[in-house]
Amino acid sequence: MGFWRQFLSLFPGRPISLARRATLYAAALMGGMAIVCVLAIFATVLVMGTESARRAGAAQAAEIVQKVASHDLSLSEIGPTELQSAYSWRPIHQTLFHDASGRLVARGYVVDAPTPTETIRRALDTAAMQTSVHGGVVWTAAPLTVGGQTIGVVSVGIARWRVLTSYLAALLPLFAASLAFMLVAIPLAVVAVRRRAQPLETLADFADKMTQQRAAGATNGRIEIRTGDEFEKLAGALNEMTTRQEKLRRQIHRLAYVDPATQLPNHERFRRELYDFLDRGDSTARNGAVIVFDLDRLRRLLETLGHEAADELLRAVAERVAHAIKRVDRLVRMQDSVERPSVLARLRGHEFAVLAPSFANDEEAMRFAQMATSAINQAFDWRELKLTLDCAAGAVVAPRDGRDPDTLTRNARLALASARQQGNCARFFTSSMDRDATSRFTLEKDMRLALERGEFRAYFQPKIELATGRIVGAEALARWVRPDRTIVSPGVFVPAAEETGLIAQVGDAVMREACWNAAAWAREGFPIQVAVNVSPLQFRDERFPEHVIRILEEAAMPALCLELEVTESVVMENPEQAMRMIEPLRARGVRFAIDDFGCGHSSLASLSRLPFDVLKIDQQFVAGLESDRHAPAIVETILAMAATLDMNVVAEGIEREKDAAFLRRRGCGYGQGFLYGAAEPAPEFGERLRRGRTPALSIEADVA
Ligand code: C2E
Ligand code: MG
Ligand code: MG
Fold first, then answer.
1. Rounded to the nearest 5 degrees, what angle is found at the Cα of 326, between the Cα atoms of 325 and 330?
2. How is domain 16-198 classified at the architecture level of CATH?
3. Structural domain boundaries of the chain?
4. Which residue's CA lies nearest to atom 41 of ligand 1?
5. Which residues, in sequence order, are bridge partners of residue 473?
6. How far does the centroid of ligand 2 lie from the alpha carbon of residue 476, in Å?
7. Is the CB of 49 under 6 A from ligand 1?
8. Residues 106-151 pLDDT 10s
């Protein structure tokens, strides 16, 4: 059975392999050799047959001649005995006796055949034996010589085919044996060659399988060949190659799809999971949730920890997050981790994400996000520290909130940013967030262009000494002057500039313009103090002091004329760092003001430790002096406190003379507001300085 299967498998539908070709060639060679042998035998028999017929004819003729001579017979006496003996051998066709004149005297025949007249004639003429072949009959003509005289010719005709068949008959057993041998030997040879070449086919099949597997993204499997020859060696080498390739493939896969620090799927892998989910999404009636978690505390910790400790912390955090997700999965989705499990990934630094497939409704997904966030936010112990991760989450429903992975992640991040802004722990994405983000994006693009074109300008609002009405300084306020001369207020672009980090460049432009102008006014004889607002982001940059010093030097402006305004919250967030920024600048003479005082949560202790020169009362208290019954008391308290700390006070947003009078009476030294003038471009402000215009009237009224 196996034999026939092997034999028949030589004729497959697909292209013929090398092993099969070898087998077929072997079979063809053997068959060919057998045919050549048979043909050779036939040729030999043919040649031998003719020769034998010749020799037999000669012997027969000689015997008759001998008989005639020994009996001393005349031709006419040749009788049946002689003729009989002439047919004693089956191949003999006929025997002819001719006399010396060439006349036929006697004839005995089995088969009639044309007389070889020419040969007979030659025998008579030469008195020697002659042979010839006519129509398949070999003729031998021998002269009959009696007493030295040729009395005639005996001609023996032997049918060549008869001689051949007699030979072939003798050879028949040999042929039969050969045929039987071939019938057995050829298939045997085929199978033997095939068996020897089989490993080659196995190797080729294995190579095919590997190619297919590689296309499918995996290469595993071994080939077993135990022939002890080159095939086994080749198989061994192939096995080693595939093992090494598989190992490499796994390594590459890990590098591409696994986060090395946490061993969680990375961003790329998460994208693929989302793709797969969205692909099969149509078949499942339920939606999935994509939740992005931001661990703000982790970010700050990672910034301060060394490499090893950071990795260890990350592993601990990843474990914690994974544990939290598993628990919430079981509670909210009633899912065991095996059936449609959530996929947790680390997207980047302190950002993790979960794809939780199949939710009944949005509420369930929200519950998942909230519970996961608060589970992650539970305090935990790490290296004798009690850590909370300050986690917030943004969630989207897939495919409703995005039909591709990037949109889903982006929208979840928008929801996360909104959660952070609103101080929530988790928020769902809404289309308005997308609109906001799009307009922020456009704004950012426009701002970059505006920075290149120098559209951010400093406008100057006068700062007045309330007692005299003299301009003692100015606050430089940023304005975005668009090419069509429309002016965008900082309330619109400062938050966006802070979010995108562009505030540093905007602040830089304003400070430069403020310093160059202040230096020019000082040279003109108006050495006023210019206050510049500093954003928290600028203040966090360790290179900020040297940057300010460079601007002062470039503008040739006395440091004493520069005042930097920072908000309370910036200072209170990290007083040590604030000191590092303030000290080198203060040492040069730069003054510092606390802006919008009263809005934040200043601690009196920190405030007294920090070397501020000026305190600016937020405009809401000034505006509320009449309407808000607490405002006057607050303003008075601030003024008293400033006096204790030996700080100057500037009241912001003075719009009414009444309020100015109140502030003056309570000992507030300086003020600014629309009552004295709104912010204006440098040329106009310079003009104002030159005119020395002050609201003298109001002071007089107050004094009166
Ligand atoms: P701020 O530093 O408290 O500036 C005072 C704001 O009050 C200015 O608004 C000013 O135009 C406005 N103002 C002045 N007098 C009155 C008044 O009598 N009544 C009312 N209602 N408002 C008055 P502006 O120019 O829109 O600036 C808003 C805020 O933007 C500033 O508040 C400051 O925090 C920020 N800002 C402005 N320029 C810059 C800058 O160059 N860099 C940074 N980082 N922030 C800036
Ligand atoms: Mg200010
Ligand atoms: Mg202010």
1. 115
2. 2-Layer Sandwich (3.30)
3. 16-198, 217-257, 267-429, 437-533
4. 478
5. 463, 529
6. 8
7. no
8. 777 777 778 888 898 998 888 888 988 887 788 888 888 777 788 8
| 596 within ligand 1 shell (Cβ under 6 A) | yes
The CATH code that applies to domain 437-533 is 3.20.20.450
* Ligand 2 centroid – CA 593 distance (Å): 9
Strand runs labelled E in 135-286: 137-146, 149-159
Locate 81 and state its tokens.
């005995």
- DSSP-derived 3-state class of residue 658: helix
248 or 520: which leads in pLDDT: 520
- Is there a contact between 396 and 416 (Cβ–Cβ < 8 Å)? no
Residue 583's Cβ-side half-sphere holds a number of Cα atoms within 13 Å equal to 8
Which numbered ligand comes closest to the C-alpha of 597? 3
Determine which of 9-13, 16-20, 193-197, 680-684 has the lowest per-residue pLDDT on average: 9-13
The pLDDT value recorded for residue 243 is 86
Query: Is the domain covering 267-429 a CATH 3.30.70.270 domain?
Result: yes
Task: Measure the CA–CA gap between 348 and 409, rounded to whole angstroms.
Answer: 12
Q: For 54-81, write each residue's pLDDT tens digit.
A: 887 788 778 777 777 776 666 666 666 6
431-471 pLDDT, tens digit per residue, is: 888 887 788 888 899 999 999 999 999 999 999 999 999 99
Q: Of the bound ligands, which one is closest to the alpha carbon of residue 593?
A: 2
Q: Rounded to an integer, what distance in angstroms lies between the CA atom of residue 211 and that of residue 213?
A: 5
Work out the pLDDT band at 421, boundaries 50, 70, 90.
confident
d(CA 119, CA 129): 9
Q: Do domains 16-198 and 267-429 have the same CATH topology?
A: no
**Alpha carbon nearest to ligand 1 atom 44, residue:** 535
- In whole angstroms, give the CA distance from residue 66 to residue 539: 146
Return the ligand number nearest the Cα of 617.
3
CA of 533 to the centre of ligand 1 (A): 9
Neighbours of ion ligand 3 (CB under 5 A): 595-596, 652
One-letter amino acid of 6? Q
Map tokens 């039909």 to a residue: 403
H helices of 532-612, where?
A: 536-540, 544-555, 568-573, 575-588, 604-609
Least confident range from 126-135, 183-192, 261-270, 330-339: namely 330-339
